Every structure is written in structure tokens, then in C-alpha cells.
Amino acid sequence: MERPLVELVGATVYFGADAALDGVDFQLFPGEVHSLMGENGAGKSTLIKALTGALQLSSGEIRLDGAPVRFHSPHDAQLAGIRAVYQEIDLLPNLSVAENIALGSESRRFGLIDRAEMRVRAHAVLADLGLDIDPASLLGRHSIAVQQLVAIARAISTDVRVLVLDEPTSSLDQAECTELFRVVRDLKARGVAIIFISHFLDQVYEICDRVTVLRDGKLVGEYLTRELLRIDLVHAMLGRSADKLRTRSRLHVVDGRREPYLSARSVSVGSGIAEADVDMVEGEVLGVAGLLGSGRTELARAITGIDRLDAGIIRVQGAKEGIGGPRTAISLGVVYSSENRRAEGIIGDLSVGENITLALQAERGILHRIRPSRQRELALSWMEALDIRPRDLDRPAGTLSGGNQQKVLLARLLALSPRALVLDEPTRGIDVGAKVEVQNLVGELADNGLSVMFISAELEEVLRVGNRVAIVQGGRIVDTLPSDELTPDVLTALVAQPESER
Amino acid sequence: MTSVPIADRRARVSAYTQTFMSRHSSMVPTFAAVVIFVLILIGAQIHFGEFVTPRTLSALLLDNAYLLILAVGMTFVIVTGGIDLSVGSVMAFTGISCASLLAHGYSAAVVVPAIILGGALIGLLIGVLVQYFDVQPFIASLAGLFLARGLAFVVSLKSIRVEDESVLWLQTTRYRFGEWYITPTGILAIAVAVVGALVMRYTRFGRTVYAVGGSEQSGRLMGLAVARTKVLVYVISGVCGGVAGLVLTAYSGAGYPRNGIGTELDVIAAVVIGGTLLTGGTGYVLGSVVGVLVYGTIKTVISYMGAEQAWTRIIVGLMLLMFIVVQRVIVVRAERRR
Predict the structure, then answer these.
(1) Res A251: pLDDT
(2) What is the torsion angle, in degrees rounded to the nearest 10, for the CA atoms of residue B33, residue B267, residue B234 and residue B205?
(3) Does A27 map to a domain?
(4) Which of chain A's residues have a Cβ under 8 Å away from the Cβ of B208?
(5) CB-based contacts of B265, cutoff 8 Å, min separation 6
(6) Which of residues 13-52 of A touch B (CB under 8 A)?
(7) Domain count of chain A?
């Protein structure tokens, strides 16, 4: 085989103590479309950032044409012909379309920008993409889809050798996707190497030659798309961890006649989740299985009052409730733990103790201050109950390991004495031991009468923890089945099934 | 029969308006400032009978030359999303230094570059604090404000008269065109504005200033020199402070350490009235010029009326409020469109 254009050898990136990328090898050949697959936090973005100079490798090296290179900034990588189009559009809405395409490589005369020339060039590149817009118009006045295409136009307007497309299709409609794929094939024919990241499996199979799968920052494998069965790909992405779990007795069979604590009917929010029906029953764990972008998080946010419902009703203990926001939800005993632990959960600069009592204090209001001694007592009891280590209430929560941070979050929610607990990926990015602990804890909570919704990208985990499993796909709950009727293979097949075959 | 061409013309006008709006919607506040400027002139002309004369308009530029120069520098800073509170003090410091050095017998050829360099250094200090020490521009330039004011008092506690011919020449020379006249300080102010406008529009540095205000992160990913730009805008503002110090010294014929107290706020007001968004990313040097003219005209009108100058502040304050609300409305509408 010919020599790879770009090669990553033993690429490792640390964020604090956690390895976001761990000894990954990756090869990219000229004229191929290569997909990078993996769940949230698998290390795709980290790999891309390392490759485009936005991040530095902690160890390992990048080779370009066989020679080791170091990119200290995105600019270095761009000079080497490596261009990226990110999922969040990294353009400037306050400048013109032409400037967004050309800035940084604009033609200048006597040090002054030749704006006419810039517009002509931009127009040519846009025409190449089949986009007929005024290059002098402000970028911010165009739709997100057009802005996305402008970002691609920017990337290909210079001498590009490697083009990274990170979720480029998430905001495009069918026709725009087709147009984009035409451009991708065109670039491929010109010998450009393309890294294509998308959570739409159909698109990956349509456009990609090879697939590299990452999981938890590690390389799972590299496959030829045409030789890889869809179900095997999903297996590779989601993994089949063999960690030991104290098997939870499934004797606790849910009585069919029991009223659910929370029941949602025809819940819709934007384009994220549509007409979802969910019942959260006391003493039961409802697992939610679905791929990235399937609507699993949107579902959780909808029923906990984080996102406003466009349609549908939510009943708590049979009474119709308008859950207007998280505060109302909490007062009804419905609490949510975000998948984004760092940004929407732990407050890193506050101590562990403060993090635990934060929500309770907020719930009681400023006039009912919890005495410091009582606060410590409370936090300490949760710390012991959940085995949070190290046993130091005054330590900044940000310095804890991922697993312990997750437990602190759980403690914060449990301190509110909730009745329904919605956990969005509580085990993501934490080590195996801590995973098992969190799983066991969820089981115990359900045994104590809580209703729990457990969302995870790891299907085996969903099966093990959940009494029932709701399968989410394309923003809809396509089925809800008792977990004893499912095996990991069956569940994988259900989750991976293309929508068209349903 | 005749209705067809009219409809056609209407369609063409509306298409033209659409193209214009899609390209230059961010200029709308600046146009509003121009309209207000014209309205004030018309109103004053009607009220006083003799307001819009070559003499008043010439004096308008003369009296506000230092403000204009400061506003040009401030525009660079505000478009990046920053703010520079030090400009009034920098102007006082460079002004008193200028007068003091000249009094000590140094030649103007040495003094002028020296004070401009002084302004640039204070700007550099603020820029470095903002960029490399991650200090809020408000705080960093507040430090610059105190520093420059303190230095001004160190140079002299009292006013120092300027005897130097070449500095006084800047103010006393009048190039006359009939009833119109312009002084070298006026020419200097116009030159600063023109150079500023060209740099903002036609250089990569200028476009990077807008990029930083739009999204610093995106600018960096585009490979633009974000860090350098963020430092440089404060240096430019400092240089403008130095030039304004020179102009003000020539204008008043003396250096005075208490000059320009609160001027930074007048400058910011003029820049905002001229259509520059305080959140950064949008604004024009020429808009700031209009803003200064509006400000100066209001001042003149108040003194024509013989009213308290406090009214200038009140009116400018009200206008500022109105402009900020209008800008918010425009921004919110733009966001809703996305």
C-alpha cells in the first residue's frame, strides 16, 4: 500500500489526570474518505484537535509524508494543508461571507486587502459548492446550513491536503447533504484526504472508505467500510465491557397495575425529541438506549423541565403538572444529572461539601440557611454513604477523579430527597471500578423506592441496570421492552437498525 | 400602462435595499447618527437663524480635534470588545509632559515623538495586562488611568505655559478658504481618522480587529494573529492619547495635569453614538467621527442657548441610552434570525 499522508503514532493527550486519548495509532491516505467513529468522549474531537494543532500531544507523534511534525497552532497545521470544519461553526458572523472565506490568505496589494479580488475568489469557491449567495453579504444573515457550507468553502479555498469534517451534516437537509457529498467525492478525486465524522451511520456507509473506531480514548480498530457490518460497527463503538457487577436480583418484578410516579405523553421539544411516551415507575430503573444524537439527552431534559416542551403533557403522581423549569421539577421530586459533568454539574472551585449541599440550600432558599455544622454533617453522611474519596469535605471538587465527581453530583441530587432521578450518562469517562459502583448504587436506589431513568451509551450497562429499556432513535422512542427479554446483541441490533428498515 | 414601470422600479428599489441590508446592516446605527447630526443642525439653524455657518462648523472641528483623535483610537479598542478608560489621563500626562519638556528647552522634534511613545507605552502595558494576564479591559485600563494621572501630577502640579513656536503653530495657523478655515490640528485629526478608517477596512490587522470582536476563538482558529491584535489596539489607543495630548496642549497653549478628567467617558459616548457596538465586532471609525460631531454640536447648541453645560451631559446621556437600546434591539433581532 502507498505511504500514508498523515499518520498518528501512539497519540496520547492528558486532561489533568484523565487520558482523553490514549496511545492511538491512526493513518490517513491521500484520496480516501476516512470516518472516525465513537461515542461522546471517545476521543474523536481530541484526535482532531491534536491533528489540527488546536491541542498538543502529551506523547506520541504526528507524521506528515512520513516525517515527524509538530503543530503549535491551528495556523501551523493550515500551512501544512490541514483544514478543519468544526461542528460549531467557527466563523465570524460580523464579517462578510467573502472575508470569512479568504481572511488569513487574502490577496493584498501594497499591504491593503483587495476586496474586489476577494469577492471574486469567494464567488468562485462558493459556485464550486453550488452555493449562489452574495459574497459581500454579512455571514450572520445566512442560515446555519449556509454558514456550514461557507465554512467548508473556506477550508477548500486554499491548497488543502487533509480536510476534517466534524459533524458537517448535522444542520443540513437532504439536498444540501447530497451537494456536500458531491463536493467530498470531487475533493477525493483530487487526492485530498478527508476525515469525516458523523453520527449518521447511513452517511458513513454512503461516503466513507474506511472507519477508525475509538472508545474511551483508545483505538478499537480500523476497518474497511464495505467489509464492516453495521451491527459490528455499533458493537465496536459501544463496546462490551466485561466488568464485574454484583448481579442485581430481578426478582423485584414491577407490578403492572402500579401507577407510575411520572408519566409523560406525546412530549416533543424542537427537533430533538418527538411524541415521546415515558413512564417512570417507583422502584424501577428505566434504561434508555440510543446512539449519539438519537434524542436520549433531549428526552431527559424534556421531562425534567430543563427544556420547554413544545407539545405533550407530563403527569406527576397522576396530576397534570406544568414543569416550567428545573426548580418546579425539583419541587416535584424530579431531578436531573447532566451528561456534561464539568460544565453543567460540578462547580470545580467550590469544595466537595459545598457542592453536595448546593442544591438543597438553593431549594430551601436564602432565608432558611443550613447551619454550617449541619451542612458538614449532611455532606459527610453522603460522603460516607456513597464512598466518595478522598474523605475531605474542603477539597475543591474539581480535583476529584471523574467517578468521585459523579458521586458528588449524585449526593447533591439525593440530598434533595427526590422521587424520580434522571441520570444522563452518569458513567461516562469514569474508570471501570467507579462505573460498577455507580451502577450498583442506582440499583440500590431503585430498591429503596426511587424511580430512576438511566441513560448510557453502553448498551450492556443499560441492560444490566435497567428493568425496562426504552430504545430511542431519530428523536423517537421506538420501543420499550423489559430487559429480561433482551440480550446485548438484540439490543445492539435494535439500536443500530436503520430507520428505513423499520 | 404606466403602472408597470413603477412596479418594476419599486421591485428594483426593494431588491437594492435588500442587497444593501444584507451587506451593511451593521451601518444602520451610524446612519442614524448622521441623520441625528443633520437634524440637530437643521433645528439649530431654524432656532438661532444663524447657526450653520462656515465659522461654527470650522470651529466645531477645531474645538473637538482632540476628542476626534481619541475616538478613533477608542473605536479600535471597542470593536475588539474591549474598553480603554485611560485615554483622558494619557492625554493629560502626554500634554503636561510636552509642556514641561519644552519648558526645559528640548526641541519639539524630540518632544513630540517622546510623548507619543509615552502614550504608546501605557497602551502597551494595558494591552499586555489584557492579553497575557487575562485582566478585564475595564480594570486594566482603570489601572492605566490612575497611572497616567499620577504621572501627570508627578511631572507638574501646576499648569505650564507653552512658548515653543512650532507647537503653537499647530493651533494658530489658519488655512482659509473663504469663510472656512482649518488649523494644522484639524488636519491632524482628519488624517488620524482617515488612516484609522483605511486600516480598519483594508488591512488584515483591521479585519482581525473585527474578528476578535466577533469571536476571538474563531479568529484564532482561522489563523489570525489574535494576541498581537489585542495588544496593538491598546497601543493604538495610547498613541492616539499622545497625539491628542499634543493637540490639546497646542489648543490651550499650556499643559495642565487636570486636563481630560472624564474625557474617556465623552469619548466612549461619542463612539457609541457613532454606531459602534460596546459588545464588539461592529463599528466604524467614520461613525465615531460623526459621533464626535454630534457631541460637539450639542455642546455648541447649549452654549448658544446660554444654558448650563450640564445640559450637554444630560442630552448626551439620553442619546446614549437611546442608542444602546436601539443597538440591543438590532442585536436581538439578528440573533433571532439565526
Answers:
(1) 41
(2) 20
(3) yes
(4) 103
(5) B88
(6) none
(7) 3
Q: Pick A141's closest partner by Cβ from B207, B219, B337.
A: B337
Q: Where are the domains of chain B?
A: 56-260
Amino acid at A145: A
Residue A189: alpha-carbon gap to chain centroid: 32
Same domain, A196 and A325: no
Question: Which tops the pLDDT comparison, B164 or A201?
Answer: B164
pTM of this structure: 0.74
In a domain, A341, yes or no: no
Residues of A in contact with B338 (CB under 8 A): 93, 140, 143-144
Neighbour tally for B92: CB within 10 Å: 29
**Alpha helix segments (H runs only) across A208-288:** 230-238
Let me know whether A133 and A249 are in one domain: no
**Would you call A95 and B224 a contact, using CB atoms and an 8 Å cutoff?**
no
- Which cell numbers hold the place of B333? 433581532
For residues A201-212, give the mean pLDDT. 89
Residues in chain A within 8 Å Cβ distance of B334: 93, 140-141
Q: Are residues A405 and A469 in the same domain?
A: no
Lowest mean pLDDT among A276-285, A363-372, B280-289, B323-332: B323-332
pLDDT exceeds cutoff 60 at A453? yes
Cβ-nearest to B23 among A92, A103, A138 = A138
User: Contacts by A435-438 with C-beta closer than 8 Å and gap 24+?
Assistant: A435/A241, A435/A243, A435/A403, A435/A461, A436/A243, A436/A244, A436/A245, A436/A246, A437/A387, A437/A403, A437/A407, A438/A403, A438/A406, A438/A407, A438/A410
Arithmetic mean of pLDDT, B126-134: 96
Which pLDDT belongs to residue A249? 46
Q: Which pLDDT value is given to residue A496? A: 79
Query: In the prediction, which pLDDT does B28 show?
Result: 81
Phi, psi of A352 (to 5 degrees): -60, -45
Is A354 found in the same domain as A426? no
A416 DSSP 8-state letter = T
Q: Which among B22, B207, B210 has CB closest to A134?
A: B22
Same domain as A179, residue A132: yes
DSSP per-residue codes, B20-79: HHHHHGGGHHHHHHHHHHHHHHHHHHHHHSS-S-HHHHHHHHHHTHHHHHHHHHHHHHHH
How, if at all, do strands A67-69 and A193-197 pair? unpaired
Say whether both A323 and A354 belong to one domain: no
In a domain, A250, yes or no: yes
Q: What's the CATH code of the domain at A186?
A: 3.40.50.300
Please count the CA atoms within 13 angstroms of the CA of A151 that sit on its side-chain side. 32
Task: Specify the higher pLDDT residue, B212 or A401.
Answer: B212
pLDDT interval class at B338 (50, 70, 90): very low
- Residue A500's domain comprises 244-333+418-502
Q: Give the C-alpha separation, B322 to B174, whole Å.
A: 38
Instruction: Report the pLDDT averaged over residues A171-199.
Output: 85
Look at residue B18 and give its three-state secondary structure. helix
More confident of the two residues A340 and B175: B175
Whether residues A220 and A264 share a domain: the answer is no
**What single-letter DSSP state applies at residue A130?**
T
A215, A238, A261 - which closes a domain? A238
Rounded CA-CA distance B78/B92 in Å is 21
Percent of chain B with pLDDT over 70: 96
